[in-house]
Write a structure and sequence with these properties.
The protein is of the alpha/beta class. The chain contains nine helices and eight strands. Helix 2 packs across helix 3 and helix 4 packs parallel to helix 5. The chain binds adenosine-5'-diphosphate and adenosine monophosphate (AMP).
C-alpha cells in the first residue's frame, strides 16, 4: 500500500464521550490500530518507566502531559508495523501544538482523513466517567450501569479485575473537562475549517454511534458500509 493511501482518523470529544469505545470497535472493521495516548501513558505508569513517572502528576491532576514527550511517544508508536496503513487516534491531538506536530508526522501520508467529534452533554460525561470501569488485563471498558459486566468487578472477556481509573474521581473530572474546553475544543473549529469534521450525536447507545460512524466513513470513501 502506498503512503498516499494511509487512513488516519482523529476522534474528538470530551473525556467520557465514548472515543475509546468507538475507536476500539473500528479497529477490526478498518484493519487499523487504535492509538490512545491515555492508554500509552497508563502502560508507562503500570510499568513504572521514566515516562510513567513524569506523566503521573499531570494525569492525577487532569492536566495535559507536556507536548514534547507526548509527541515523541506518538511518533514512536507510528513507526510500528501495525500502523503501516494508518491509525485511529483517540485522545491525540489535544491542543494546537499537537495538531501541528501530527501534520508534520503525516506529511506525505495524506494527512488526517476524518475527525469525528462525539457530542455529549457535561451531565452525561459525569455519569459516564463516574461509572467507568476498566479491565486491568485487557483494557476493555465497561460502565456499571450502561454496559455492565455479567459479574460485577470481573471482565467478561478474560476474567480480569475491573478497576476505576484514578482520574475518574469527581475532583479530577472537573479539571479534565475544563482542560478539554480550554485546550482541545478549539480543534473542532480547526478540523471543521479543513472539511474534515463530522459531528456525531454521542448520546445514542454505542451500537448506534458505531453505525453512524461507519456510514460516515463510507460516505467519505474510507470504508464500505
Ligand atoms: P473516552 O474514551 O471518550 O474517555 P470511553 O469510551 O472510555 O470514553 O467511555 C466512557 C464511559 O462511558 C465508559 O464507561 C463506557 O462504557 C461508557 N460509554 C461509552 N459510550 C457510551 C454510550 N454511547 N452510551 C452510554 N455509555 C457509554
Ligand atoms: P485519556 O485516557 O484520554 O482520558 O487521558 C488520560 C490522561 O492522560 C489525560 O488527562 C492527560 O493527563 C494524559 N493525556 C492523554 N493524552 C494526552 C495528550 N494527547 N496530551 C497530553 N496529555 C495526554
Amino acid at each position: 500500500m502506498s503512503h498516499a493511501e494511509r487512513t488516519f482518523i482523529v476522534f474528538l470529544g470530551p473525556p467520557g464521550s465514548g472515543k475509546g469505545t468507538q475507536a476500539r470497535q473500528l479497529t477490526d472493521y478498518l484493519g487499523l490500530p487504535q492509538i490512545s495516548t491515555g492508554d500509552l501513558f497508563r502502560f508507562h505508569l503500570q510499568h513504572a518507566t521514566d515516562l510513567g513517572r513524569l506523566a503521573r502528576g499531570y494525569m492525577d491532576a487532569g492536566e495535559l502531559v507536556p507536548d514534547g514527550v507526548t509527541i515523541r511517544m506518538v511518533e514512536e508508536r507510528l513507526t510500528h508495523a501495525d500502523a503501516a496503513a494508518g491509525a485511529i487516534f483517540d485522545g491525540f491531538p489535544r491542543n494546537l501544538a499537537q495538531v501541528t506536530a501530527l501534520e508534520k508526522m503525516l506529511a506525505g501520508a495524506g494527512g488526517v482523513s476524518l475527525a469525528p467529534v462525539l457530542v455529549v452533554s457535561d451531565a452525561e460525561v459525569l455519569r459516564r466517567l463516574g461509572g467507568r470501569r476498566v479491565c486491568r488485563t485487557c483494557g476493555h471498558v465497561y460502565h456499571v450501569e450502561f454496559s455492565p459486566p455479567q459479574q460485577p468487578g470481573v471482565c467478561d472477556r478474560d476474567g480480569g479485575e475491573l478497576y476505576q481509573r484514578d482520574d475518574d474521581k469527581p475532583e479530577t473530572i472537573q479539571n479534565r473537562l475544563y482542560v478539554y474546553y480550554k485546550q482541545t475544543s478549539p480543534l473542532v473549529g480547526y478540523y471543521f475549517a479543513r472539511g474534515l469534521l463530522a459531528e456525531v450525536d454521542g448520546a445514542q447507545p454505542p451500537a448506534q454511534v458505531q453505525q453512524v460512524l461507519r456510514a460516515l466513513l463510507a460516505d467519505r470513501g474510507i470504508a464500505t458500509a
